[in-house]
Design goal:
mainly beta; 44% strand; globular
């Protein structure tokens, strides 16, 4: 089991929670499997890509800001109820990509687009390779999960035990126009697994 670690930076990133009919949309404070894996597949176009990430704890980065706007309904030429979205500025995160025949040749540095509001300039991210975790058994510990992973991919990331789960659902696309929600472990779950999946490295 090998992983490639990248540093993620972005000027503005909005990974909005889906709240039906809500006029305030908070942003997620981690980097879920579906967000980063989907963004990588959009660039590299292969199904055998798996990645997770988390934001780096640093007072100079990942600051919260807000934007209020009124979406326009072009069909009836009127504006809808104003929405306020929460987003992050000066984003700094860590990304862990499962190393395989597809991902081993990824460039040292490349760009992806991730999250919501991409048409308004959000979500341009730069990934820069930092290191590879080559140990066949990455350093392990028990601790609190700091990302979101579908249950069907826990083994992919070396999660060997779920001690206290916090469940939620992540969207799994099945085609360009359809998909399903799959049960997933959310941040705050207590697990046994690689330290890079844990808050404070499992300390």
């Amino acid at each position: 089991m090998e992983f490639i670690k990248y540093r993620l930076t972005s000027d503005m990133l909005c990974m909005g929670e889906r709240i039906k009919k809500g006029t305030f949309r908070p942003t997620i404070r981690t980097i879920p499997y579906t967000q980063i894996t989907g963004a990588l597949k959009a660039v590299f176009g292969d199904n055998d890509i798996h990645a997770v990430g988390h934001l780096v704890e640093d007072k100079k980065h990942n600051k919260v800001d807000y934007l209020t706007y009124s979406p326009r309904d072009r069909g009836i030429e009127t504006s809808k109820l104003p929405l306020t979205i929460e987003f992050l500025t000066g984003v700094l995160g860590s990304i862990y990509i499962v190393k395989n025949e597809v991902t081993k040749d990824f460039a040292e540095e490349f760009e992806i687009r991730m999250g919501a509001m991409k048409s308004r300039g959000f979500g341009l991210c730069t990934l820069k390779k930092l290191t590879e975790l080559n140990d066949s058994r990455p350093e392990r510990d028990r601790g609190v999960l700091n990302t979101r992973i579908p249950e069907e991919h826990l083994e992919t990331f070396g999660v060997s035990g779920v001690i206290k789960p916090v469940y939620g659902f992540l969207f799994k696309p099945l085609s360009d126009t359809s998909g399903v929600y799959v049960r997933s472990l959310f941040e705050g779950s207590e697990i046994a697994g690689p330290k890079f999946l844990l808050e404070h490295g499992g300390k």
